[in-house]
Every structure is written in C-alpha cells, then in structure tokens.
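To whoever is on call:

I kicked off a structure prediction for a single chain this morning and the downstream step that reads the tokens threw a length-mismatch warning. I double-checked the sequence; it's 290 residues and nothing unusual in it as far as I can see. Pasting both halves so you can look.
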Amino acid sequence: MSIEVKNITHIYSEGMPYESVALQEVSFSVADGEFVGIIGHTGSGKSTLVQHLNGLLKPKSGAIFIGDVDITGEKVLMRDIRRRIGLVFQYPEYQLFEETVHKDVAFGPINLGLSEEETDHRVREAIGLVGLDYQELAERSPFELSGGQKRRIAIAGVIAMKPEVLILDEPTAGLDPRAHKEILDMIRSIHSTEKNITLLISHNMNDIAALSDKVLVMERGQVAMMGTPREVFSKGAELKKMGLALPPAAEFMDRMKEKGFPAETSVLTKEEALEALLFQLKDNREQVVQ
C-alpha cells in the first residue's frame, strides 16, 4: 500500500470572477506505514489536498494512486476508496449523532455491510484503541461526554472501518493541554498498532516533529519541501519566510545562533537542545583551558 500523487491541480470556482487555484502541479509519494506531517500557512492548500485523497474533491488534472488504483479514474467507485481511506475533519465531534456511543462507532462498519458480530468486535476494538473503556461508555449518549472523549469517539468511528490510510486534519484543535496530549498519545498508539499510513495536518510543530517520519510543507498550493523532520526544521529561515514556526527547541537554538552562539540548529526536542548546549559549553571550556 502506498500513495502516489502526480501533478494534481485544483481550481475553485473555475471560470468565475472569484476563481482560485488551490493546488498547482502537486506531486509527492508516501510509502506503506509512513507517518507524514503536513504543514503550511492558512490557505496553503493542506485541507484541499487531503480531501483529494479520499475522493471528496476531484483534481482538474493529474492523478492519485492509492496502491495500484488511480482514484481519479472515471470508473472508480468512491465508496470502495473510502473504505480504505479514513478522513477525520477538524472538530469531528460535531458529527456525532447517534443515541449511544456504541451506535455511533458502529455506523461505519454497518454501512460496510459487516455482520453484527464483526461490527461489535470492531466497535469494542476501536473504542479501546482511542483509550476509552467500552463497558463504561458503550450505552451512554455521546453528548454526555467531555470534549476530549467526544473527539476520541468520533475518531473511533473512523478507526472502526480499519482504513489503510488515516488522515487527521488538526485533531487537537481547541483542546486543553491535557486533552491535547491524550489525543496525541492516542494517534501515536493507533499508528503503531494498525501500521497504516497516517497523514496529520497540524499547526503545532512540536507535534509534527515528534510523530512524523516525513514532513510535507505546502506553500501557495504547491509542495515547498518534503523531508524528515530534522531536514525540514533545519531550514528555519525558509520556513519563517512562509510564516511558519519551528518546534520550540529548534526555535530556541535558532535564536541562539542569531545572537552569535554556535548553536546546533538541527535539534528537535528539548533533550537534544540541552545535550547540544552542554557539549558546546564543554568544548568552549576545553578551548579556554588549552
């Protein structure tokens, strides 16, 4: 299973006075099991891009291959594609609608035509994967839950369909720090367990650095760069020109370098930053002694 995006272009309101080119000749690939973080300034094309990956939007030109299937082809059934690709929008809890948690999570598997036994198994498994207790919550109304719990249940409804590709668009938006961390840990656990392709859109660079195998940077509807977190976040000047921040540790080291300190700017975590600073201080002290 892989994703291959080839030269896709998307134009909103084509031929109208407010025509807007949202994506222009976008190409990239994602290997089986990879976790890809997608970043970019507001309006850069991130959400438009991921909506193409499960067929919600069609490109004006170009092709998208999921495995060996061109999902932009005329004879492709989108229902079959959406069985393989799960998309979690911002604030997915607003889409909860059933009487009970069990029924809400079961909605997807039922529509896949699964048996009652298999559906029940998937519901229990999905609720467990998002870190909640099935016995405690199954028969409760989803509207009685906390904000963080609602979001987990909404994500469980997608997980229960066992997508080969899981796309999450700002899954921690609006959450308090504790719920933010819980959702982040949950995403890490799901990816580790399911071993699927995961695409995460986020403005939180610390989250992107911590979770991603690769980072895709969007700028004005195009792919500005793609590489490992260390490769991408070492290009602080370029990212700042796009209006993007760095992970806090990288930002700190970048500012140290601006002030003349020979700081290592490829760090991603506070632990790496501390280690680099201690090494530099030790090296400086040894030079003074000599």
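Update from on-call: the warning came from a stale cache, not from the record. Cleared it. Sanity check on the structure: The first strand starts at residue 3 and ends at 12.
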